[in-house]
Design brief:
2 domains, 4-stranded antiparallel beta sheet, 6 helices
């Protein structure tokens, strides 16, 4: 099952934060795809992302001071604006030097529905296409997501993605009163079609043995979509008026760890009133995944031979095919071509 491809996908947008985790006047460092990035908000509240090194001696800018418009390095006091342009060098007596020519690399960074995304390029000097490839989060531009949970998965992005899209683990990992029992197995038939940078499970009536769906009344249907680099979207229609959007994102931290974020949106007023207990259930669900991934990490430390078997693992195979095609498109500088074909899968869960 091991892939010979590069582990990380570039020229794509990655989830960085829920908006509530990035406060004005504060700097936050994150490692994404092995790159250390400092995030903040400018005086207008817009997010920015810079390489987290002062270009003078390399000290992390996140260790410095930030007044909402100027970042000052804690080592020699060099100052930079939120676009990474140097605005002052306190120790420099030569006023003829144009310090504005000194730059910190600025990553494209966007706020979408109160979530913060950063674009990681293959070539930092060429950002063509970044604005055209922003993720579609399925809700209106004026709507906001609620934050459910953020956890660090102790595995690389490939193992984390396979765990995210694997249907067979649900029966055994997520046994609980609010979801399902291992005794309620049913044969499932799901229709899949290629979609943009991934694939989607065609809209269908939710599984009758999933208790979480059973509380939704009025003609419920769900559509599940996976998109590179590692995002799972579930759109649930409840009757004619209401909807639920549940999104899980996977962002590589480095070669050994991946950050999982879960965000949630609904038009159902009762869900907002019951948000605290619903969020607790969401955290429990994700905690079950985290627990089994810690066990997976122990097993992977022995470097075992792995396999993907049958329809339950077909989505994992598709993921590797999509990665291969994306790497090829980046390397050859050609448009991405989705290699997948429509297919019906069967499994028992």
């Amino acid at each position: 099952m091991a892939s010979e491809q590069p582990l990380f996908l570039k020229n794509l947008w990655y989830f960085a934060f829920h908006g509530s985790q990035l406060k004005k006047g504060k700097l936050v460092q994150k490692e994404i795809l092995g790159e250390r990035i400092v995030f903040g908000r400018d005086d207008q509240g817009n997010p920015f992302a810079l390489k987290d090194n002062c270009p003078h001696r390399g000290v992390p800018l996140s260790a410095g001071w930030f007044d909402g418009s100027t970042i000052q390095c804690c080592y020699h006091g060099w100052k930079f604006d939120c676009a990474g342009t140097c605005t002052g060098i306190p120790a420099l007596a030569d006023d003829k030097l144009d310090v504005s020519k000194i730059k910190v690399y600025q990553y494209p960074c966007k706020s979408i529905n109160d979530t913060i995304w950063v674009y990681i390029p293959q070539n930092k000097l060429k950002l063509e296409g970044a604005e055209q490839s922003l993720p579609n989060l399925l809700i209106g531009a004026d709507k906001k997501f609620l934050h459910v949970e953020t956890v660090t998965m102790p595995t690389n992005i490939d193992h984390s993605v396979i765990g995210l899209i694997d249907p067979a683990h649900v029966t055994f990992v997520h046994q609980s009163w609010f979801w399902r029992s291992s005794k309620s197995l049913k044969l499932k038939e799901k229709n899949f079609v290629p979609d943009e940078l991934g694939f989607k499970m065609a809209r269908h009536k939710p599984s009758s043995n999933s208790k979480g769906y059973s509380v939704l009344k009025g003609g419920t249907s769900t559509e599940i979509n996976f998109q590179l680099p590692g995002n799972r979207f579930e759109h649930i229609k409840v009757g004619e008026k209401h909807e639920i959007v549940s999104i899980t994102t996977l962002t590589p931290i480095n070669e050994n760890e991946t950050e999982l974020n879960h965000i949630f949106y609904t038009t159902i007023g009762l869900a907002k009133l019951l948000w605290t207990p619903l969020k607790s259930l969401g955290k429990t669900f994700i905690g079950q995944d985290l627990d089994v991934f810690q066990k997976l990490r122990e097993g992977l430390d022995t470097n075992p031979t792995l396999m993907l078997v049958g329809d339950p693992d077909q989505q994992a195979k598709w993921y590797y095919e999509l990665k291969k095609s994306w790497h090829k498109s980046v390397e050859e500088k050609t448009p991405f071509s989705n290699p997948l074909q429509p297919q019906t899968l069967h499994w028992i869960t």
